[in-house]
Amino acid sequence: MAAKQPVYHVAPSGEGAAAAGLKWQVEGREGRRMLHEPHRTQQEAIDAGRHRAKEHTPAQVVVHARDANVRSAYAYGTPPSASPDERGRRAGERGGVF
């Protein structure tokens, strides 16, 4: 069975970390290890998440806004294969992008 690809989330830190000036964090799982890496700025956290994702390809980085909505996402390595609908054709039709 193949291992799941890591997903690193860049999200606001909890109140305790924010009071210490660490307002953003990278969260994720590397194997059995949980990752909680605090950073002062969102950009620092994004850079750290992207660096980790590049080291553990295939992987994803999901960037959240302060209100927890997804702001952007980055994928590294081989993405999962797309279904026919995702390749630009309707189910049962011939043709499409590929």
Element-by-element helix/strand order: EHEEHEE
Overall mean pLDDT score?
80
Basic shape:
globular
Characterize the largest beta sheet: strand count, sense, and whether it forms a barrel.
5 strands, mixed
The separation of the N and C termini measures 28 Å
User: In order across it, which strands form the biggest sheet?
Assistant: 3-2-1-4-5
Number of helices: 2
In percent terms, what proportion of residues is strand? 25-35%
Describe this structure in words.
16% of the residues are buried. The protein has 98 residues and is α+β, with helices and mostly antiparallel strands. The model is unreliable at 83-87 (pLDDT under 50). It is globular. The chain has helices at residues 15-19, 42-55, and strands at 7-12, 24-30, 33-39, 59-64, 70-76. It has two helices and five strands.
Write the layout of secondary structure elements.
Elements lengths: L6 E6 L2 H5 L4 E7 L2 E7 L2 H14 L3 E6 L5 E7 L22
Parallel strand pairs: 1-4
Antiparallel strand pairs: 1-2, 2-3, 4-5
